[in-house]
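Hypothesis: this fold can be encoded by more than one sequence.
Test: take the structure tokens below, design a sequence, compare later.
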């Protein structure tokens, strides 16, 4: 049976050559060489859950990535825990992806680390919703969430805005050293002046208003560079802050005089 599968895989690999950077091979988990150093670790609770899932499925649900070394054996670059769990689950043969072209040591390490690093992050609010929507206990066990994660989800009582659903625009400004110093001081003063106001998130319309304002300043002051226009905007903001301070002083003095006049009348 294994030989028949290998023949089919060879035909498939021929069809995929040039389109797919890997070849598919059938391998025994015990024959695969594991990484000697692996920065990615898995808690015992998670690993045991993975073993139970493989037993239930009958095989791995995602393919390990391997590299064929000079001795002809396959070294697992990504999926070491899956291979180990497959061994414990008693799986005899698994399907693996094998890097098609030759890689030096640096390239193989880069692949290993990239597969560990590019794992994404969970939106805990959505994760909580999905977890709580599972009614079957066995299905919850299959989901593989460890006890720490479940406890963390239980403590979530708020509705958050998921990062991937936000519509945002990234704006970069370049400043000279002396300019960034002045800008930093002004931003600190602004933060102090509005310390009582708590802003969690600015609406996208705020960006549009800001952008229109920068364009107006560029036209009015004959400025071509956006960073220079932004500095001009900061200068105007500084003038506005000084005016606000003067108004506050006048209001305070006026209130004080009213208070004195009231006391004298009384």
């Amino acid at each position: 049976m294994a030989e028949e599968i290998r023949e089919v895989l060879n035909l498939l690999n021929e069809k995929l050559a040039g389109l797919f950077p890997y070849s598919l091979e059938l391998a025994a988990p015990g024959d695969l060489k594991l990484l000697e150093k692996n920065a990615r670790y898995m808690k015992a609770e998670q690993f045991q859950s993975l073993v139970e899932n493989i037993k239930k499925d009958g095989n791995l649900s995602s393919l390990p990535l391997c590299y064929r070394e000079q001795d002809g054996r396959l070294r697992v670059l990504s999926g070491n825990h899956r291979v180990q769990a497959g061994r414990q689950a008693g799986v005899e043969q698994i399907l693996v992806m094998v890097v098609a072209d030759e890689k030096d040591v640096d390239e193989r390490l880069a692949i290993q680390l990239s597969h560990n690093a590019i794992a994404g992050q969970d939106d805990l609010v959505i994760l909580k919703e999905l977890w709580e929507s599972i009614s079957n206990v066995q299905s919850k066990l299959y989901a593989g969430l460890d006890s720490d994660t479940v406890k963390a989800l239980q403590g979530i009582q708020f509705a958050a805005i998921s990062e991937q659903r936000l519509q945002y625009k990234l704006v970069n400004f370049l400043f000279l050293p002396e300019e960034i110093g002045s800008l930093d001081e002004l931003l600190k003063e602004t933060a102090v002046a509005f310390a009582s106001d708590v802003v969690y998130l600015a609406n996208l319309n705020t960006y549009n208003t800001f952008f229109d304002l920068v364009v107006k300043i560029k036209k009015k002051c004959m400025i071509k560079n956006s960073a220079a226009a932004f500095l001009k905007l900061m200068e105007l903001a500084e003038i506005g802050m000084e005016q606000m301070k003067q108004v506050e002083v006048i209001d305070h003095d006026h209130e004080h005089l009213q208070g004195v006049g009231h006391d004298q009348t009384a």
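The two ends are 106 Å apart (CA to CA). Residues 226-265 form the longest helix (40 residues).
Hypothesis status: open.
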